[in-house]
Amino acid sequence: EVQLQQSGAELGKPGTSVKLSCKVSGYNIRNTYMHWVNQRPGKGLEWIGRIDPANGNTISAEKFKSKATLTADTSSNTAYMQLSQLKSDDTAIYFCAMGPGITPWFAYWGQGTLVTVSS
Amino acid sequence: DIQMTQSPASLSASLGETVTIECLTSEDIYSNLAWYQQKPGKSPQLLIYDASSLQDGVPSRFSGSESGTQYSLEINSLQSEDAATYFCQQHHDYPYTFGAGTKLELK
Question: Model confidence over A3-18: pLDDT tens digits?
Answer without folding.
Answer: 999 999 999 999 999 9
